[in-house]
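Hi P.,

Sorry for the delay on this. The queue was packed all week, but I finally got your sequence through. Input first:
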Amino acid sequence: MTYPRAEGYHIGWISSLRTEYAVAWQLLDEAFPSPNLSANDRNAYTCGRIGEHNVVMTCLAMGSYGLTSAASAATDMLRSFSAIRFGLMVGIGGGAPSEKHDIRLGDVVVSAPVGQRGGVMHYAFGKAIQNRAFEWTGSLNSPPEVLLRAAGKLATLHEIHGHQIKSTINDMIQKNTRLQRKYQKPPPQTDVLYKSSFTHPNDNEDCIELCIK
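Then the structure:
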């Protein structure tokens, strides 16, 4: 069987945490062995296919976080996979529900540019001042146009047919039951919004055991 060469991969996928990387790995429709890499590339890769797209995935080094580590991983990826058209940083985020947006644990959030804002708010581009509203000081660039067009089509398909997120997660868990406890959609009773001043009493125990009483 002939596997894709390095120039056959056009999508790069970077995860910050091992938890995120494990799920990304399970979403591959087919896994491929890694092609020959550049001698200066320090990443470890998982290669495969999602639909008709060949995707190369990597995770930041254990104990490494932040923009510098992510930029380093992306730079090394391009050393070996020079034909990549765009990169995705996919991971776990936090959000608070509002009257307009009913955000719940387990939801998938996809940002889009609005006005002069690129769609993603980085914590370094804003400041909170006591007794005043949060102040924006900047924004990240918008995603590539090819992704914005694809996102528009996907949003339309979701409006017409609904999404398949639940079935995708169920299929993943059925293929690997070891992931069920940690990666299935959490029960509604764990979806609790705490005040910003709340301090979790013990990092070694679950909130459902300590906080929801």
